[in-house]
């Protein structure tokens, strides 16, 4: 919405649909929005990593480097963060274009379920079971 405004394209209300508190910018939507912050907090807890604090999208996309993980788990966290961005964007668009209410639990469900399918589609062997994926152990 911020980018459209800068190009003199009026799309009406520019308030973030996730929190209703600030103008919608890329940085706000993915990093400082209260709902996005809750997403990253839940993801951090799920992945058993320090809480993800990002001041920019660049910080967010590099946060797996500071997760304290390495190898496959670090790669998985990177993918989960990308799915997190996609799920937040999807929730935003579902509200903007389909009037679908934004629910934190739907965003988390999408991240976990699509992330599970994504990961298992990438590996030939050692597929992860849903139970292990949900507890983020034995990976
Ligand atoms: Zn917001």
Task: Give structural notes.
The chain has one domain. 61% of the residues lie in helices and 0% in strands. The mean pLDDT is 90. It binds zinc ion (ZN). Zinc ion binds next to loops.
Order of helices and strands: HHHHHHH
Radius of gyration: 16 Å
Arithmetic mean of pLDDT: 90
In total, the number of domains comes to 1
What is the count of helical runs? 7
Count of extended strands: 0
Spans where pLDDT lies below 50 across 5 or more residues: none
Bound heterogens, unique: zinc ion
Percent in strands: under 5%
- SS-based structural class? mainly alpha
- What best-fitting shape do the alpha-carbon axes yield? elongated
N-to-C span: 39 Å
Features:
139 residues; mainly alpha; 7 helices; binds zinc ion
Brief sketch in words of this structure:
Helices cover 61% and strands 0% of the residues.
Please render the helix and strand layout as text.
Elements: H1 2-6, H2 26-32, H3 34-47, H4 57-62, H5 71-98, H6 104-122, H7 130-135
Helix pairs in contact: 2-3, 3-5, 5-6
The chain binds zinc ion.
Zinc ion is lined by residues 16, 18-19, 21-22, 28, 33.
């Amino acid at each position: 919405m911020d980018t459209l405004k800068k190009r003199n394209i009026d799309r009406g209300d520019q308030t973030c649909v996730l929190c209703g508190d600030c103008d919608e910018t890329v940085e706000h939507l993915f990093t400082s929005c209260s709902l996005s912050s809750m997403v990253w907090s839940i993801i951090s807890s799920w992945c058993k990593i320090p809480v993800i604090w990002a001041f920019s999208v660049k910080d967010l996309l590099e946060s797996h480097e500071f997760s304290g993980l390495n190898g496959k788990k670090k790669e998985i966290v990177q993918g989960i963060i990308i799915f997190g961005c996609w799920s937040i964007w999807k929730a935003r668009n579902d509200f903007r274009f389909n009037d679908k209410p934004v629910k934190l639990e739907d965003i988390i469900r999408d991240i976990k379920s699509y992330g599970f399918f994504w990961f298992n589609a990438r590996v030939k062997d050692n597929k992860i079971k849903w139970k292990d994926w949900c507890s983020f152990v034995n990976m």
